[in-house]
């Protein structure tokens, strides 16, 4: 009897998971001119301005042309902003429309709810990352140095920022609140995260300060997967990302179970 109950509960949660993921994917695909097109255009401008125009004056960096060097960072920038933005906007929208309250009183597991939203954010981040990667091939040549590291890092990064977007959505009280973290936290950390430069160019003190930037570790780990060069130790970066994923996941589950910021 217990086995039958567990099987039915698992089946119900699986249906709920598929429904949430399907809704999230349809959501960003339905409005693709707002979700997929703008980041693609922005990245093309980065390729043209920073890669072609400014890159010619800078020359090589890390043994590669400047364009080759910044492409992995720009791909990661697009993955970070879109995975974060998808979850924070979607979950806050559900809060605003009181859809979350229906999920919380349903027999669906909090893990199922969280994983569904996170998968939606990861898929949008990966979709934009693939688009940016394809566009970058019109400007430079890329070859993957280590496929396993590349895939692992991009998945962990998209998961971390999807979970971060979930936390932001839980504590946000209005639509203005969901733009505070991307504007005042993510953007500065991204631009100071080694996307456009190697930290070896910085004085020793600022190199040490830069190591406290989590995005620096993600960008360099992904750059190692693509180009085979990095300013940080790959094992440390991946270990940090695994730990950040576990901590953020536990925090999100606790917020879901408590209903904080979701029950009116």
From TrEMBL:
<dbReference type="GO" id="GO:0140359">
    <property type="term" value="F:ABC-type transporter activity"/>
</dbReference>
<feature type="transmembrane region" description="Helical">
    <location>
        <begin position="36"/>
        <end position="54"/>
    </location>
</feature>
<keyword id="KW-1003">Cell membrane</keyword>
<protein>
    <recommendedName>
        <fullName>Transport permease protein</fullName>
    </recommendedName>
</protein>
<feature type="transmembrane region" description="Helical">
    <location>
        <begin position="113"/>
        <end position="139"/>
    </location>
</feature>
<dbReference type="InterPro" id="IPR047817">
    <property type="entry name" value="ABC2_TM_bact-type"/>
</dbReference>
<feature type="transmembrane region" description="Helical">
    <location>
        <begin position="232"/>
        <end position="257"/>
    </location>
</feature>
<dbReference type="InterPro" id="IPR052522">
    <property type="entry name" value="ABC-2_transport_permease"/>
</dbReference>
<keyword id="KW-0472">Membrane</keyword>
<feature type="transmembrane region" description="Helical">
    <location>
        <begin position="69"/>
        <end position="92"/>
    </location>
</feature>
<feature type="domain" description="ABC transmembrane type-2">
    <location>
        <begin position="30"/>
        <end position="259"/>
    </location>
</feature>
<dbReference type="Pfam" id="PF01061">
    <property type="entry name" value="ABC2_membrane"/>
</dbReference>
<feature type="transmembrane region" description="Helical">
    <location>
        <begin position="184"/>
        <end position="206"/>
    </location>
</feature>
<dbReference type="InterPro" id="IPR013525">
    <property type="entry name" value="ABC2_TM"/>
</dbReference>
<keyword id="KW-0812">Transmembrane</keyword>
<dbReference type="InterPro" id="IPR000412">
    <property type="entry name" value="ABC_2_transport"/>
</dbReference>
<comment type="similarity">
    <text>Belongs to the ABC-2 integral membrane protein family.</text>
</comment>
<dbReference type="GO" id="GO:0043190">
    <property type="term" value="C:ATP-binding cassette (ABC) transporter complex"/>
</dbReference>
<keyword id="KW-1133">Transmembrane helix</keyword>
<keyword id="KW-0813">Transport</keyword>
<feature type="transmembrane region" description="Helical">
    <location>
        <begin position="151"/>
        <end position="172"/>
    </location>
</feature>
């Amino acid at each position: 009897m217990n086995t039958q109950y567990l099987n039915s509960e698992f089946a119900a949660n699986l249906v709920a998971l598929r429904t949430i993921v399907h809704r999230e994917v349809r959501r960003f695909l339905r409005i693709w001119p707002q979700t997929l097109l703008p980041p693609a255009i922005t990245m093309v401008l980065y390729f043209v301005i920073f890669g072609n125009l400014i890159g010619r004056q800078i020359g090589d960096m890390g043994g590669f042309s400047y364009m080759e060097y910044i492409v992995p960072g720009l791909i990661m920038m697009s993955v970070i902003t879109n995975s974060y933005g998808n979850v924070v906007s979607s979950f806050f929208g559900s809060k605003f429309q009181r859809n979350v309250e229906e999920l919380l009183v349903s027999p669906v597991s909090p893990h199922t709810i969280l994983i569904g939203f996170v998968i939606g954010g990861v898929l949008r981040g990966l979709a934009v990352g693939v688009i940016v990667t394809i566009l970058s091939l019109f400007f430079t040549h890329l070859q993957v140095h280590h496929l396993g590291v590349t895939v692992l890092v991009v998945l962990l990064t998209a998961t971390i920022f999807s979970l971060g977007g979930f936390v932001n959505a839980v504590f946000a009280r209005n639509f203005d609140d969901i733009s505070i973290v991307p504007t005042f936290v993510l953007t500065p950390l991204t631009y100071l995260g080694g996307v456009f430069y190697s930290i070896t160019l910085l004085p020793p003190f600022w190199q040490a300060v830069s190591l406290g930037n989590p995005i620096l570790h993600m960008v360099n780990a992904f750059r190692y997967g693509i180009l085979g060069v990095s300013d940080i130790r790959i094992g440390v970066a991946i270990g940090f990302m695994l730990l950040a994923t576990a901590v953020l996941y536990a925090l999100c589950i606790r917020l879901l179970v408590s209903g904080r910021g979701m029950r009116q």
